[in-house]
Design brief:
CATH class of the largest domain: Alpha Beta
Shape: globular
CATH architecture of the largest domain: Roll
Radius of gyration: 17 Å
Number of helices: 4
Largest sheet: 18 strands, mixed
Helix content: 10-25%
Oligomer: single chain
CATH topology of the largest domain: Diaminopimelate Epimerase, Chain A, domain 1
Distance between the termini: 5 Å
Length: 241
């Protein structure tokens, strides 16, 4: 199997044009024995779309969408179609428009849905953007027991867990733990979900810098409440199993 490893703010992906047996994905993504990645994305051709993708977590479980992963797929397509100004990529969630602005890429993730869900008498803020994201606002992200919060949530839920600190109306800091991967250096769909929730609570502007441990991306919201993720993916290397 030939693959291409991409990275965006510490979030790593293996991209391949080949069909993969799902039980092998965790082997390919292993840190010590595989190519070390958070996710694996398969890409296939289509008459209607520039690419049709499936996103798998590190443990082999299926994820409906990945914001950072879509940007990496767009970067791969740009490498082989150098004159293109944009692409339409189909995920298991929906179709996504992807455009380029200088050395940055931007992808339309769609309009999230707010879900209020009670878990053991706790009312969590849950935003669905293909995958559910449990969001908690904290005063200081560095002094918050994120690991303890994740353990609490994991007793009842496999949803993505996000804590967010509001720096100002145009900047937030985040940490995320994703089912099937664990704590991540960054996550595009988590950033988009957090900005959508906080924007609709009147706490953020419509364009926000989202800072993770691994780096920062930009999330913006249009007049119809669609969210867009902007970042700069990078090809790390090509390989073959």
């Amino acid at each position: 199997m030939k693959f291409f490893k991409f990275i965006l703010n510490g979030n790593t992906f293996l991209l391949t044009p080949y069909e993969i047996k799902q039980y092998l994905i965790s082997e390919y993504c292993k840190d010590s024995y595989g190519a070390s990645a958070d996710s694996l994305i398969t890409m296939s051709q289509s008459e209607e779309y520039d690419a049709v993708i499936k996103v798998y977590n590190k443990d082999g479980s299926l994820s409906l969408v990945s914001g950072n992963g879509l940007l990496c797929v767009g970067e791969f397509l740009k490498m082989i179609r150098t004159n293109s100004k944009g692409f339409i990529i189909k995920s298991d969630y929906l179709s996504h428009d992807l455009t380029f602005e200088k050395d940055l890429s931007e992808v339309k993730l769609g309009k999230p849905k707010k879900v209020n869900q009670i878990e053991k008498n706790h009312l969590f803020n849950i935003i669905n953007l293909g995958n559910n994201h449990i969001i908690r606002i904290v005063e200081n992200i560095d002094k918050t027991d994120f690991e303890g919060f994740v353990k609490e949530v994991r007793k009842d839920s496999e949803d993505n867990v996000v804590i967010v600190e509001i720096v100002n109306a145009s900047k937030i800091r985040l940490k995320v733990d994703k089912h099937g991967i664990g704590e991540m250096l960054s996550c595009g769909s988590s950033a988009a979900s957090a900005v959508y929730f906080l924007y609709n609570e009147g706490l953020l502007d419509s364009s926000v810098e989202c800072e993770f441990t691994g780096g920062s991306s930009i999330v913006r919201i249009d007049a119809l409440d669609n969210v867009y993720l902007k970042g700069k993916p990078k090809l790390v290397f090509k390989g073959e199993f």
